[in-house]
Amino acid sequence: MWRASLDQPADVVSGLSVALCSAERDRAARFRFERDRARYVVGRALLRRLLGGYLGMAPDEVEFRYGAFEKPFLVCDGPWFNVSHSGPVALYAFSSAAEIGVDVEEVQRDFSRERIAERFFSPAEVTALRSLPVSDQPCAFLRCWTRKEAFVKARGDGLSLALDSFDVSLDPDAPAALLRTAWSEHEPVEWGLEDLSDLAAGYIAAVAQRAPGWHVRQLHVIEPILGGEPRQEDQ
After folding, report:
1. For the chain, which has fewer Cβ within 10 Å, the N-terminal or C-terminal residue?
2. pTM above 0.90?
3. Which among 51, 80, 50 has a CA at the least distance from the CA of 63?
4. ∠ CA(155), CA(210), CA(145), 5° rounding?
5. Over the stretch 129-162, which tens digit does the pLDDT of each residue have?
């Protein structure tokens, strides 16, 4: 796991942009707001630099293809990977074992007071959420949301998988887990989920992989450095 801030000085953004392919530069140019354009450039360039480090190649040599629901994968052999960002926070997940999914959300707006849970969560999850003290519900909502999104991204189902067709844990005292799937009694035991939340840093996050018994080895906090390798601080 790697974490980075997408808000970087203009000279760093410009330096990182050389790693992008022409299609990525075209996409960056279509962003209406400069902040969104810069965050896209930093996020994509860092993904290329991280993958280049694993593959032993230059960032601009990394090639992607896109499967169902536009999920990217490597043209060559390499690690499974997934990326999520919310505001300035970006998380990058890599695995040599199986497909992986990650999701992160900033702790800002209180979505728990809206009816989003009743619309998208399963009945069991809604009951678990509303049984918590009101003060605990904002973070519990985001725990549920990020775990569900990480699971969907790891499966590669995109919008075709209804969020109320499976249950995840959300209680603050319970470990992250897939509890139920509507289509299989046995699939939940095949999955591992891990909470990556850092409330001090202002985000809640989760990572999912269809391979039980694994854990996140380390979370690296990286700082892009113009003209050099990213610095990292292990957590």
Report:
1. C
2. yes
3. 51
4. 60
5. 999 999 999 999 999 999 999 999 999 887 789 9
